[in-house]
């Protein structure tokens, strides 16, 4: 345990501070609400001489990710961040980053997608890019944003991984909130993360190499499977890095976090900042003798299949709260994943889909209680049919 | 097909991300394999103006040691630009099947 400094910080700046302490070499970013504060603060660090990095101003997010890809290929440690439309504009390049196995770290200040023009938070942006091959982690507060960003570099750059990592946190509800943070100092971060990235190979004129060459039908499948294996295998490294971080600094992380689930009959499952509100609702319901708990999903890709199955083995129903819609499909994207992995499980719980908190709308304690009550009803009923319920919608 | 696909690397033997660490490896690609028509050059009609050499998008035409233009069929994709550009009509395209 280390006696680190407890400070008050805006969550966005917790991300900037983490990237600075990670001693990034290159930052290429384009400002977009609600992410702007992250790169603004990084620009200040560079301008003030506090961070010796190349700060590349680009004309779009497509260029931001392209510049990150080029820089990362040369062996540099690279950071960027974006949100909403910016992430959508990056979409093409996200796949290039993952496919070329480039350990870029990106903060995603989750924002709704247009139309209509909405700068506020939900998970539509990352969920639309969820199959891009990146490791995806959802943070709830300043501490998690800070810790996960620093850990992300170690995970991404591990020779067994070499994949980009997105650290996602809710636009405004998390990004713009000032919270307490147990910050690490440079000496502490240096003990955990090597001062510089050590790339075993890189794009350099000294040893010419070809990246992203043409792959005919007889080789593309193998390339895609290679990526898929790497992403799935990264889970062990993620767990290892989180354990090492915990041993050094006393804060341990797991792919998901269970709250008051011991004797629970039903559970609410959610990612991101609203898990806090969800826990308040659980506390209220527990006072009334309702046997309910909450699961916060932290690691979204690679999906923690085994952990989710285990944590749900004790409950009779689970209400999955998505802040995104899988259009014309299954309701919420996380709901689809959860329901999918439970298909092979005997005595599986009923799985309910709730869509809430779109475009920055609050999910209140009252909403969570309503969701929890519906989950408890389903826990006592037989079977569970596929139904999607929108919370707080005027119909 | 190309050398790369003849060897048929699997998921494990494939270099990471399919990165090619050998420079100049594109010359291993037998791009002539997807040719439908091949150019036939009549050296007697050829005036050695070099327009075919200029226009060939694959650099598949070269002047051999006898100072006669030749077409490297390993790389010629059979696009026919050389035949189109040849002023004395010394190059004609014939179907590969013939």
Summarize the structure.
The complex is a heterodimer of chains A (395) and B (98). Chain A is built from 12 helices and 15 strands. Chain A is an alpha/beta fold and 395 residues long.
- Total E-strand runs of chain A: 15
- Beta strand % of chain A: 15-25%
By CATH, the topology of the largest domain in chain A is Rossmann fold
Q: What is the SS-derived class of chain A?
A: alpha/beta
CATH class designation of chain B: Alpha Beta
Overall outline of chain B: elongated
The ordered string of helix (H) and strand (E) elements of chain B is HEHEEHE
Strand content of chain B: 15-25%
Describe the structure.
- The complex is a heterodimer of chains A (395) and B (98).
- Chain A has 395 residues and is α/β, with parallel strands linked by helices.
- Chain A folds into two domains: 5-249, 3-Layer(aba) Sandwich (Rossmann fold), CATH 3.40.50; 256-390, Rossmann fold, CATH 3.40.50.
- Helices cover 41% and strands 19% of the residues of chain A.
- Chain A is globular and about 65 Å long.
- Chain B is of the alpha+beta class.
- Chain B has one domain (3-95): Alpha-Beta Plaits (2-Layer Sandwich), CATH 3.30.70.20.
- Chain B is 15% helix and 16% strand.
- Chain B is built from three helices and four strands, in the order αβαββαβ.
- Chain B has helices spanning 3-7, 51-55, 81-85, and strands spanning 37-41, 61-63, 69-71, 91-95.
- In chain B, the strands form two sheets. Chain B has a two-stranded antiparallel sheet with strand order 1-4.
- The longest helix of chain B is centred in the first third of the chain and has 5 residues, at 3-7.
- The model of chain B has no long low-confidence stretch (mean pLDDT 91).
- Classes of the chains: A alpha/beta (395), B alpha+beta (98).
- Chains A and B meet through helix 8 of A and loops of B.
């Amino acid at each position: 345990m280390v006696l680190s400094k407890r400070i008050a910080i805006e969550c966005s700046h917790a991300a900037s501070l983490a990237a600075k302490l990670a001693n990034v070499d290159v930052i290429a970013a384009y400002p977009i609400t609600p992410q702007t504060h992250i790169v603004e603060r990084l620009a200040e660090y560079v301008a003030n001489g506090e961070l010796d990095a190349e700060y590349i101003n680009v004309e779009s997010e497509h260029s931001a990710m392209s510049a990150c890809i080029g820089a990362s290929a040369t062996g540099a440690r690279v950071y960027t961040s974006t949100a909403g439309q910016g992430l959508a504009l990056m979409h093409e390049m996200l796949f290039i980053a993952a496919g070329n196995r480039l350990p870029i770290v990106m903060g995603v200040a989750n924002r709704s997608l247009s139309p209509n023009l909405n700068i506020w938070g939900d998970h539509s942006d990352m969920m639309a890019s969820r199959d891009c091959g990146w490791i995806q982690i959802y943070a709830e507060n300043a501490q998690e944003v800070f810790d996960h960003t620093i850990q992300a570099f170690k995970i991404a750059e591990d020779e067994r991984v070499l994949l980009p990592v997105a650290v996602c946190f809710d636009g405004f509800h998390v990004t713009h909130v000032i919270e307490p943070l147990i910050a690490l100092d440079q000496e502490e971060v240096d003990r955990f993360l090597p001062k510089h990235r050590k790339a075993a190979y890189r794009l350099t004129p000294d040893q010419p190499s070809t990246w992203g060459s043409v792959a005919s039908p007889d080789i593309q499948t193998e390339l895609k499977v290679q990526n898929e294996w790497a992403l799935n295998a990264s889970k062990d490294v993620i767990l290892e890095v989180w354990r090492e971080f915990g041993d050094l600094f006393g804060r341990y992380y797991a792919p998901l976090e269970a709250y008051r689930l011991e004797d629970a009959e039903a559970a609410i499952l959610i990612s991101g900042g609203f898990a806090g509100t969800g826990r308040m609702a659980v506390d209220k319901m527990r006072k009334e003798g309702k046997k309910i708990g909450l699961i916060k999903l932290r690691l979204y890709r690679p999906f923690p299949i085994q952990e989710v199955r285990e944590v749900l083995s004790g409950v009779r129903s689970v209400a999955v709260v998505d802040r995104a819609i899988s259009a014309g499909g299954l309701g919420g994207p996380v709901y689809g994943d959860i329901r999918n992995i439970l298909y092979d499980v005997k005595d599986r719980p009923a799985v309910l889909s709730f869509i809430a908190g779109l475009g920055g709308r609050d999910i209140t304690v009252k909403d969570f209680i309503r969701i929890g009550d519906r989950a408890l009803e389903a826990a006592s009923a037989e079977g569970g049919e596929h139904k999607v319920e929108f919370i707080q919608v005027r119909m | 097909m190309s050398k790369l696909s003849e060897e048929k690397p699997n998921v494990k033997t494939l270099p990471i991300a399919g990165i090619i660490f050998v420079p100049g490896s594109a010359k291993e690609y037998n791009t002539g394999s997807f040719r439908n028509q091949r150019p036939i050059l009549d050296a007697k009609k050829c005036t050695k103006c070099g327009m075919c050499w200029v226009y060939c998008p694959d650099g598949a035409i070269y002047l051999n040691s006898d100072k006669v233009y030749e077409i490297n069929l390993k790389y010629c994709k059979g696009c026919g630009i050389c035949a189109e550009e040849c002023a004395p009509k010394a190059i004609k395209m014939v179907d590969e099947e013939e």
